[in-house]
Each structure stands twice: as structure tokens, then as C-alpha cells.
Amino acid sequence: MLARTENTKAIVVMMAAVGVLSLMDAGLKLLAAHYPPLQVATLRGAASVPFVLLWILPQLRSGGLLRIRWHLHLARGAATVTMLGCFVFALQSMSLATAYTVFFIAPPLVAALSVPLLDERVSPPRWIAIFVGLAGVLVVLRPSGDALFTAAGLAMLAAAASYALSSIAVRILARTDSTHAMVFWTLTMLTTGAGVLAWPGWVPIHAEHLPIIAAVGVLGALGQYALTFAFSRGEASVVAAFEYTAVAWGVGLDLALWSTFPDVATWVGAAIIIGSGLALLRQDTPRGRAIAAEAERPQALRSRPPT
User: Fold this and answer.
1) Is the dihedral of CA 253, 258, 259, 264 positive or negative?
2) Upper half-sphere CA count for residue 273 (Cβ side, 13 Å)
3) How far apart, in whole angstroms, are the C-alpha atoms of residue 186 and residue 163?
4) Does 303 map to a domain?
5) Model-level pTM?
6) In this structure, what DSSP letter does residue 261 have?
């Protein structure tokens, strides 16, 4: 009963986190119409750093930010810069709902990349879910003869792949480094790395955009707090499923701010991608892992009577 109560709390907080981060993404899309993608990425990181520090510093142990695996943090920082830069670039011409739909290919990519990078085993049902998810992306992007994908579509795929690599890095870093260190250095490297790359083409910031930038910073920090709470209190395989509510937020924000609505192909692709992601999450439950392990055992062992 206690576990169910904690899961319920975590689910509610997760849904709130998705809503808050969707509002932040709407702010990024508004800024993307006026500034280069890497500059928007820089502003997103810089605006959130002060609020994240308020959360991290009171709980930080001495030297906790320095005794880390620097090479992995640098690799994750580079992946984060690539991810957000590509994400913002895609938002310049892609609706939020479509962007989220394509971006949700990330969970299947994480599962696929875990084989060569983490030496994990992926069962046949999980491989099927991965390929189904890829098929869903093809439905959304509708590749055709002359142009296989749009620039925005390719950028969003690159963003999803970068996010998947960052997630793999987190799995490795979590063995030795604290959550606080990972959050702090990811934001710091995002701000610094994107800022250096954006500086040659930096566009002066207009005063009317300062409230949007501040809102992006606050919403980003609140979203991070909420995600941390949700995953620390609930079962990851249960909580993660509610990330897909972002599509509903995307549709609503697209209608409210840009008067756009997803077409039929986007809905169909979204259903396929979300279905594959939920299948992967189902495989990640203790029961799902037990079933997968049973399926991979030799037939002779499976048919052996219990002793």
C-alpha cells in the first residue's frame, strides 16, 4: 500500500514536471524566432543556474562538485549542448507536438545503445519495440524521394540521439557521482559550451524578451526539481510512462500560441512511438525482466521441473 501511495505521489509530480517543462519549451520556441539556436541554449542554461544552485549548495558536501569523473562529465556536457542546440533549431520550424513525438524515439535509442556502451542484453521483445519506434518516426517525418528528411526532422533526431547518449552517461556516472554534481556540471557545461559556440553570432537581447528568459530559467529549475522528486519517490518504470503526457501539452500549447494542430500522420506516428516506449517500460519492470530472462534460458532448463 505504501509503494502504491508513493507511486501515486510520484505520478502527480511527474505530470506537473512535464507540464512545467513543456511551458519552458514553449518559451524556447518563442525565443528561437529571434535568436540563434546555440544562443537560446546558452540563455536556457544561464537562466537556470542560479535557481539550481539554491537547491544544490545547502545539501552539498565539501568537494562534492570537484571529485567527479571529468571525462564523462565533459562528454555529457557536449551531448547536452548538441541536444539542446538541435532541439531549438528544430523548434524554429516544427510544432511542439511534432517535436515531442520525434524526440520520444530517445527511449528506444537508449535501449539500443545500452548493448555496445553498457554491455547490457536486450531481449527479442525489446528489439521489436525499438524497431517499431523507429518505424513510428518514419511515419511522422514522412520521408520521400528528393528529401529524405527535413532539416528540422534530422535536427530533432540528432537531439534525441544526443539525449540518449547523455542518458547512458548518467547511468555510468550515477555509480560514483552525486545527482547534485551531475545537475550542476550539466548546466554549467551547457552554458559555457553553447556560449562559446554562440558568441561569434551573438544577437543583442531585446528587453521585451527578458521576462521569457527569466521564465525559462525558473520553469527549467522547477521542472528539474520535480523530475528528481518523482524518480526518487516512485518506480522508474511507472513514473517514466507519464513523460508521454508531453504530447498533450504540446498540442494545447501549439493551439494556444501558434494556432497549429497535428496532422493525421503525426497522430499515427505518435501512437506507434509511444506504444513502443511503453512496451520498453513494461519490459523494464521486475516481472518483465523475469519473463525476458525466462525466454532467453535454454529450453532444457525451462522445462526442468522445480526441485
Assistant:
1) negative
2) 29
3) 12
4) no
5) 0.84
6) -
